[in-house]
Amino acid sequence: MLNLPRFKAAAVQAAPVFLDTDATVDKVCALIREAADNGAKLVAFPEVFVAGYPYWSWIMNPVEGSPWFEKLVRSSIEIPGPEIAKIAQAAARHDINVVIGVNERSRYGIGTIYNTVVTISNEGRILGRHRKLVPTWAEKLTWAPGDGSALRVHQTNIGPLGALACGENTNTLARFALLAQGELVHVASYIALPVAPADYDMAEAIKVRAAAHCFEGKLFTIVSCSTVSEEIIAAMEATHPQARELLSRRNSAFSGFLGPDGRVIGQPLIDDEGIVYAELDLSRCIQPRQMHDITGHYNRFDVFDLRVNRRPLEAAQFNDGGAPLPEFDLEPVRPGEAE
To answer: Annotated Gene Ontology MF terms (predicted)?
Structure first.
């Protein structure tokens, strides 16, 4: 018998403690506790919430923004590492699944960082670490491209769970790759982007993308978007005199829930900081698929063929066959002796 979960979910709309990793992690743990205390079994956090988004790349030239890049690298984290372990412990302590965006630093290159989405189970296990496939527009000055190794749907106690970061939710093939793995709960993490073109409504764009994924895939989407705090504006204003004007446009953040028919559930948060909640019943994903099941009977897999490369991309592959390290004579060479 098919039994699909029904649970309460939470979407956080907030700003990090800008470029302060430890303080932001403490804020994350407090928000996890708040969401769990309100009955949530899943809490979604914004894109690169630990510990900030590179707004300087949108309002400064690359030379002006370079010192800020160094600050971001210094505040980035490794996975696994103590910061994500602390968040995972909070997830286990409060019996809640957590999806959170972080700036992840390469373990083998201090100048290479990734826009990473981490999925953590209610038992505190790190289920996935997905690096954003393609940094968007000005973001290419900051993050390296990810790979398909973690383009996966995770089996959790609240159902099959997948996640993508910001502009990836516009990537039809990335979304289909998750749907083809049975995704029923999707987390879309975003940042507020007040500096988009004048005729671009960021909040509306977020909603449209989420609605498309929900309607096409017949599933639920939880959207979590950051806000631009006074702290962020003041920091940018110290370097760029127009920062306040550029970063203060309204209708730049949307957080909330959309159902399998593509419609918004409840009242979303627009711009303001807070947590929004919704009850999600995954059994609502069944009937709409009788009409359109694009990963099942409503497709032609003899016509279309999607292949996903899940091989991790690495700087080098060392094929030493597992041979032991050679022994070295560590005695110092004395003057006059042949080397």
So the answer is: nitrilase activity
